[in-house]
Amino acid sequence: MGRSPCCEKEAGLKKGPWTPEEDQKLLAYIEQHGHGCWRSLPTKAGLRRCGKSCRLRWTNYLRPDIKRGKFTLQEEQTIIQLHALLGNRWSAIATHLPKRTDNEIKNYWNTHLKKRLTKMGIDPVTHKPRVDSDAGGGGAAAGTGARSRAAAHLSHTAQWESARLEAEARLAREAKLRALASPPQTTAAASGVDSPTSTLSFSESALFGGSAGPDFHGAARAAAVQAVQSYGEACQEHHFGGAAAETSFAAAGTLAGVLLDCSVTGADQRFAARTEAGSGELQGEDEDDKGYWNSILNMVNSSMSSSSSSLTSEVVTDAEMFLPAAATAAAEF
DNA sequence: AAGGAGATCAACCGCCGTATT
DNA sequence: AAATACGGCGGTTGATCTCCT
User: Fold this and answer.
1) Which of residues 195-254 of A touch strand C (CB under 7 A)?
2) What is the model's pTM?
């Protein structure tokens, strides 16, 4: 039953900083044999390290295609905007920053960007101006209302995101199975843009690139539909009944459209449709979201088209609709 | 020049999803 | 079906570096 015991339980394995000799051994071994199974690599390479440590050293430091040193302004902007879209999914963010590792990006975010945004009064989690300053003064009822709306909005976003990720994961599994069943062609295009450390799914490639292949794009749409359905069900199951659930459902649906329909430029029309479908107080927030999400996607599209990967064939043009806070941040950098 | 505080970043830890037996 | 290993991810730590007083 199961596999043989793990070497990581063995005593005497070295920890801590790597020496140049160890680096040399690891490098030489991988250059000659490839990393293969990380578990058995240390023994074969003559290293007293666990496989996990070797993998980390390779992916974060020794890999030849790693760019080190200062992040450029464009890279900083990319990180900020992708973080607004993806949150702390560093490996997914790293996919869009060639030659940068997820660990490096994570460190840079935590030590530089997060602080800068905070300093400028921008919440690094929500990427919106901080609202905690109004907590003390003013009418208690008005303050409470604003806070509850903000909380509800965040809750909607979180539930939507959760459902979306779930659908993406499902889609990735399906795409993988399809790829196995019908060889290369499309997988070659996908593998060309994935970083070795990334687990970004094919659906995500389709999501960002918009043209990773008709199959993937179509599949990504299907995932969005599933996500929206899940989100709608979640709304009905939980706090949001009737009209509120319908509004949330419509909002999530439009958001899915914006997220996935990267190759179409009619974002305004989508938001107009969303406004028609929705009702009540969410509309004001929808307008904010419009510029917010659109700017992020524009940036993603632009960066993808200017990079060598040429993932996308069409570029959304209104790049100046940059997330206002991030634009301010960029100006201050 | 010394030492304390803060910043940086490589590496570790623990968890999770998937693969394997 | 269950148990276990493996690979990968995000969060955290701690050694080292840099700056300030």
Assistant:
1) 197-199
2) 0.55
Residue with tokens 């997220």: A259
Chain B footprint positions (protein CB, under 7 Å)? 7-14, 17-21
Nucleotide C9, nearest residue via CA and C1': A91
Quickly give A128 CA vs B4 C1' distance in Å: 36
Give the bases of strand C that a protein CB approaches within 7 Å.
2-12, 15-16
A248 CA to C2 C1' distance (Å): 41
Looking at chain A, list the stretches that DSSP marks H as alpha helix, in order from N- to C-terminal side: 20-33, 41-45, 51-57, 73-86, 90-95, 102-108, 114-119, 140-181, 186-193, 202-209, 214-237, 242-260, 267-277, 282-306, 324-332
| Domain chopping of chain A, boundaries | 15-54, 145-332
List of residues 6+ apart from A79 with CB closer than 8 A = A71, A93, A97, A105, A108, A109, A113
Query: How many angstroms is C1' of C4 away from CA of A72?
Result: 44
Tens of pLDDT along chain A (333 residues) come to 344 444 445 567 888 899 999 999 999 999 888 888 898 899 889 999 999 999 999 999 998 888 888 899 889 999 999 999 899 999 999 999 988 999 999 999 999 998 888 888 888 888 887 765 433 333 334 444 454 444 444 444 444 444 444 444 444 444 544 444 444 333 333 333 333 333 333 333 333 333 333 333 344 444 444 443 444 444 333 333 333 333 333 333 333 333 333 323 333 333 333 333 333 333 444 454 555 556 555 655 554 444 433 333 333 333 333 344 444 444 444
A53 touches strand B (CB under 7 A): yes
* Other residues' Cβ atoms within 10 Å of the Cβ of residue A146: 14
